[in-house]
């Protein structure tokens, strides 16, 4: 962050975050040199615009997985070493097929030992059929050991994984390994989150289709930032390994809230005919379906906001901390004006009632002004 960081946060606090949240910039930013964090905020986070950090930026130069997972030339996986490291683990595998175009269908999912997957992966006859994806490798490994990669500063403000790790829940940090032609069909990332994807080896053909059409090849050493709610499909070229995170923070939290509200509206419409026979539990039932479908509902989103707020209240005062708290405050106030939130949530079951949390945040912010 440069010396103007206070100015950027002052601008952010003055911004209207509740309207025009569907705005998107229709081009891909390519960085061949590392930008400041403020530049990334202005060019990508505020514009919800994709960005490619090329290998020239050197963001992956010191990652231990580069030397541990690849051959001496660092061009392909070291299959035998990977088996020695992780062969005993059970991994999620997707069976790719030209006949399956729907994202995340259960019919093509299976699990197997990692050494079994590698034998299919390295076999030319089956390499294009089996794709190890959404593998929680870091979570399954010894958490006391350091990451086999370093999260770039641009993606470190990550409320989703921060909450998951604090609560010892399944996280949204994944490893992907697949052969030539393995793919992920068109989809939007879970909850409309951001994602970032670091290519360890091989290439990936990315095609954004909504809100704008953009197609490009991601090279080894490149890291891609995918904005909220951008639909895309991805095809691997050659033996490919990548590390991916889904995440959100203060910059897209209102998009997450909007996404949950839209999905809830659809749920309520679909089961409207049941409303008369379950009037007392209607809102609660809709929230249960929302949680089952999206992995989050209004109460669980509030719990996440509470956890992040409490962690920020204990941190050293800085502009990012104040901005996070300011956005949490603004969103909770918005939630308190939403009928479904008021009817579906029993505030007595919350770790702290919303108005009490708002009072705590306001007190903290006022003290920082003194």
UniProtKB/TrEMBL annotation:
GO MF annotation list: 2-oxoglutarate-dependent dioxygenase activity; sequence-specific DNA binding
JmjC domain sequence ranges: 140-264
Organism: Rotaria sordida
Catalytically driven reaction(s): L-lysyl-[protein] + 2-oxoglutarate + O2 = 4-hydroxy-L-lysyl-[protein] + succinate + CO2
One GO process term, biological-process aspect: positive regulation of translational termination
Protein name: Jumonji domain-containing protein 4
One GO term describing the cellular component: cytoplasm
Pfam family, one: JmjC
Domain of life: Eukaryota
PROSITE patterns, A to Z: JMJC (PS51184)
TM spans (from-to): none
Record-stated family: Belongs to the JMJD6 family.
């Amino acid at each position: 962050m440069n010396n103007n960081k206070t100015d950027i946060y002052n601008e952010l606090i003055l911004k209207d975050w509740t309207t025009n949240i569907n705005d998107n910039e229709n081009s891909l930013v390519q960085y061949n040199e590392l930008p400041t964090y403020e530049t990334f905020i202005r060019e990508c986070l505020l514009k919800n615009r994709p960005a490619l950090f090329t290998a020239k930026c050197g963001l992956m130069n010191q990652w231990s997985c580069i030397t541990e997972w690849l051959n001496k030339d660092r061009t392909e996986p070291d299959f035998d070493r990977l088996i020695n490291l992780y062969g005993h683990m059970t991994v999620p595998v997707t069976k790719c097929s030209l006949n399956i175009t729907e994202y995340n269908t259960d019919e093509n999912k299976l699990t197997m030992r990692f050494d079994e997957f590698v034998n299919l992966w390295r076999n030319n006859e089956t390499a294009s059929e089996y794709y190890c994806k959404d593998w929680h490798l870091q979570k399954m490994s010894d958490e006391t050991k350091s990451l086999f990669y370093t999260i770039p500063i641009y993606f470190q403000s990550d409320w989703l994984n921060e909450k998951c790790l604090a609560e010892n829940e399944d996280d949204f940090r994944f490893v992907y390994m697949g052969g030539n032609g393995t793919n992920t069909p068109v989809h939007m990332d879970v909850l409309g989150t951001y994602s970032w994807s670091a290519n360890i080896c091989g290439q990936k053909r990315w095609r954004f289709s909504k809100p704008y059409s953009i197609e490009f090849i991601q090279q080894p050493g490149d890291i891609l930032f995918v904005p909220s709610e951008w639909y895309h499909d991805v095809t691997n070229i050659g033996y490919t390994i990548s590390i991916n995170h889904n995440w959100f923070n203060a910059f897209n939290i209102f998009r997450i809230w909007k996404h949950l509200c839209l999905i809830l509206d659809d749920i309520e419409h679909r089961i409207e005919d049941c409303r008369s026979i379950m009037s007392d539990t209607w809102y609660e039932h809709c929230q249960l379906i929302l949680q089952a479908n999206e992995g989050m509902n209004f109460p669980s989103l509030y719990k996440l906001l509470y956890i992040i707020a409490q962690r920020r209240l204990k941190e050293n005062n800085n502009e990012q901390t104040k901005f996070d708290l300011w956005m949490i405050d603004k969103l909770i106030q918005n939630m308190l004006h939403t009928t479904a939130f008021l009817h579906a949530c029993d505030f007595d079951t919350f770790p702290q009632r919303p108005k009490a949390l708002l009072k705590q945040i306001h007190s903290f912010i006022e003290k920082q002004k003194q």
